[in-house]
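Project channel, design review

CF: Before we commit to the Paractinoplanes rhizophilus constructs, I'd like one complete example in the thread so the newer folks can see what an input/output pair looks like. Taking SDR family oxidoreductase.
RD: sounds good, go ahead.
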Amino acid sequence: MTIVVTGATGHLGRLAIESLLAKGVPASEIVGLGRQVDKIADLGITVKQVAYEDVDALTDAFRGADKVLFISGSEVGRRIQQHTNVVTAAKNAGVGLVVYTSAPKADTTDMKLAAEHLFTERLLADSGLPHTILRNSWYIENYNVQQALEHGLFGAAGRGRIAASPRADYAEAAASALVGEGHAGKVYELGGESFTMDELAAEISRLSGKTVTYTDLPEEKYAELLVGVGLPPAAAEILADSDRAASRGALDVPRTDLETLLGRPVTPLADSIRAQLS
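CF: and here is what came back for SDR family oxidoreductase:
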């Protein structure tokens, strides 16, 4: 069996490969695709420098692949063409199963971040390729605990609950979908322990011994704050809109699907915070 992991040089991709190896998949059966291939050169797998823009290189890389972990691109606004290339290449190469990392509630949410993911889900459905959709909710790493200790937490999520888990949980779930059976045609809503931003601040305070507060801002003011700390306006708009959607429940999903794929409880919020504190 050959498993190809796209976006393998990013944080999630590397963790997914490490999880596949931990589950007993031989390194000789894993191919990692990415731009900065030096980042995964130590894993002992086959590594190929391939970008989402190059459909011919993607097709060549996918030939002979039984399964592909299709990690979504990170460049909002460019993903429709990039993802079209990946799906086209997978179909041309006759891939047996595509496992795609999507966004929570992609088919019902009004969160701007989900639009390109929903496009990709429909693209996969129209392609006829066997596929599995992993709708990953927030990564707990989206919240920098060390910065929170210095400056507090800011956002526009109100009292909305956010079901977050470490990247490693989502990576392990992806590996389970790749090595297990019966996942084709399934859509999994993946989320960890849920919390409000006030609860996150309180937990950081409890574990650090230093008072951390959450300041809730209007969506537009939060976008301005993000631009002020260096984010491009387009990225700031997407993140502020995600918080706006979170305030209405867009990021609150049950942990059931994630725990099913993990075969264990999700990582507790307290453990995730301790890991950042250390």
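RD: helpful, thanks. The chain has a mean pLDDT of 97.
CF: The radius of gyration is 19 Å.
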